[in-house]
Write a structure and sequence with these properties.
With 152 residues, the chain is α/β, with parallel strands linked by helices. The chain contains five helices and seven strands; from the N terminus they run βββββαβαβααα. A five-stranded mixed beta sheet has the order 3-2-1-6-7. Strands 4-5 form a two-stranded antiparallel sheet. α1 packs across α2 and α4 packs across α5.
């Protein structure tokens, strides 16, 4: 089966979501971290178990530092994004980077995280999106769905 993995990076709030070739919910989770550092081996193992033997393609949101961010938080965020991209690359499967402006416009959501959470809840009623802080998982799933639609 073909699956699509979306990844919403974050220094401590990153998330991943998987949809299958029909656009159905497959799996999701929060990226494991400790003290602001991605736990790369446990997270890679978690992703690998979720993916299984399926044909997979990844998409990672293209994120950047914000002008109001401090130097320390910018460095922490950059380190996390680098770790996330390295884990994805180690799967040796196709992967893409897309700007939030592009995928959000295509999916009909705004920069307001609640719009992503609302759409994801409507689209995948079985996904674990009950808390407000699950917006990262919602965006990861929407990224995966965006990629699935691009590849059809």
């Amino acid at each position: 089966m073909r699956i699509f993995v979306g990844i919403d990076p974050g220094a401590v709030s990153g998330a991943w979501g998987i949809v299958d070739h029909h656009g159905d919910y497959f799996a999701s989770g929060h990226i494991q971290n400790e003290a602001g550092r991605i736990k790369v081996i446990p997270w890679r193992d978690e992703l690998s178990n979720a993916i299984g033997i399926n044909d997979v393609t990844f998409v990672v949101e293209d994120v950047h530092s914000m002008p109001s961010q401090g130097v320390a938080s910018t460095f922490k965020f950059g380190r996390a994004v680098g770790a996330i991209e390295a884990v994805v690359a180690l799967f040796r499967e196709p992967w893409y980077i897309v700007s939030p402006q592009r995928w959000k416009a295509d999916m009909g959501v705004t920069s307001d995280k609640s719009t992503s959470l609302e759409l994801a809840r409507k689209t995948w009623s079985t996904a674990p999106l009950t808390r407000k802080k699950d917006h990262g998982v919602a965006e990861a799933l929407l990224l995966a769905e965006w990629l699935r639609r691009q590849e059809l």
